[in-house]
């Protein structure tokens, strides 16, 4: 009781000096308590295992023979990086990423333009665009595998330039096309929703002004809409590219890696879970993580360059 | 006049294309699920089941009578719901702090969340596989719930903090001035405003958990915990080129229907969430 009294007697002057500090200290500690569970959980399941992968990658360690575990330094990395499998799978992954994101950007933008324009049936369109997003990736993989199948699919009979018995899963290029088709179908709607949000931020006044000044549709698109959406486009491309780089489900279901269609995620999975090679598998995990960082870095840099270019232009 | 008509036709055509895009593979897999196994293996490349090749509901009853499939559905529902509930609770606390309080390390939390959202999931499978076996939670519900929570938290935190930033927090004080206790003010004013955002985050989180495949096949080995996407991929036979297509299609439809129903529900909630945010003025 008395201490409280003393404190209140002393504090006012103190508080008048720096009115925020006590409050901000209290806010800080409350905030830390509220954020802690989320932060701890996130780090526990990502940072910790990643460090462990880093450690395990330095060993020759197979679960089929755990006692033979020995320190080998960077030998696993040397093995992985000198293996043609690793580079073939990286090539596949990068190829899938670039092609799908490019196609999705164009189609997704067209969809976003339509959704932006449409007034009637807006709810129906927006609901249906969420359906591919909601469908399990594995299920969409099945749907497209069966669709492309030469025994029970419909793609061959619908496409004019393929014979009815064309086996899409008989060779590399057509298998890759089928895989990319399923990926593009599933994620274009997500891309278009992100772009739609960006489109909503482009000022109607500016578009109207450009129209009055006699700008054509293309000019308005290139000079007004796209420059104003740069941030939204960057976010959409970055998210989708990193997502595409992790491609696994569709390939697992559609080809199981046959005809050299394996991705880098698939290779890592095979080493760890199917062959129990934790040492080399961990090295691959680390390489996969690093390559995702590189991809993120390149995309961010790429868009910054564009930004600078655009500024010089105007 | 002529130009706007052309524009309208273009928009209409665009809408039709979007609808076909979204629905075609869904209609296709539903159609496949009603074809008989013989019609499929004998090669019936038609889109819809032909008059002789229909199987009625038999694929569905076969799938639903399959013990492994039923277990997988139960696993998926249980694991996804628990992970969603826990993840949303934890994310709500964090998002409240991020939206409402000034504190050191806010940027760190948001950056960590962003990095995890972009994390290559497969990278973690190896170490988690090893760790979970050591801890004895390999092939259990818990062994999937923990990674699902961790990987849905970023999404939930970002969605929720965006929602919470829109909430007019002064209303809480206004209610207190009007004589409400701070708990009453929080419960009666803030909770209803935050609820649509929390629900939206929950739906997105549930999507993620239900969709997961990598953890599902790597961290389980039996039907004890194997979720539905993983179970579907292992469903009858390991040869990916000779799967029982129509049976699998039926299973896929059963696994997808709850999500699509949620999508329809989700749409309304988003609209509700947006209108609730508009109370601001």
Automatic annotation (TrEMBL), chain B:
Membrane among the record's keywords? yes
Where does the UniProt entry say this protein principally localizes? membrane
Q: Which UniProt keywords are present, listed alphabetically? A: Cell membrane, Membrane, Transmembrane, Transmembrane helix, Transport
Q: Name one Pfam family in it.
A: BPD_transp_1
Q: Name one GO cellular component term.
A: plasma membrane
The protein's matches in InterPro entries, at most eight in alphabetical order, are given as: BP-dep_ABC_trans_perm (IPR050901), MetI-like (IPR000515), MetI-like_sf (IPR035906)
Q: What are the subcellular locations of this protein? A: Cell membrane
Q: Which CDD domains match?
A: TM_PBP2
Q: What GO biological process terms are annotated to this protein in UniProt?
A: transmembrane transport
Q: How does it sit in the membrane?
A: Multi-pass membrane protein
The membrane spanning regions, by residue number, are: 12-34, 72-96, 108-129, 141-164, 189-210, 245-266
Family listed: Belongs to the binding-protein-dependent transport system permease family.
Q: Which PANTHER family match?
A: INNER MEMBRANE ABC TRANSPORTER PERMEASE PROTEIN YCJP, MALTOSE TRANSPORT SYSTEM PERMEASE-RELATED
What is the name listed in the Swiss-Prot or TrEMBL entry for this protein? Sugar ABC transporter permease
> What lineage does the source organism belong to?
Bacteria, Bacillati, Actinomycetota, Actinomycetes, Propionibacteriales
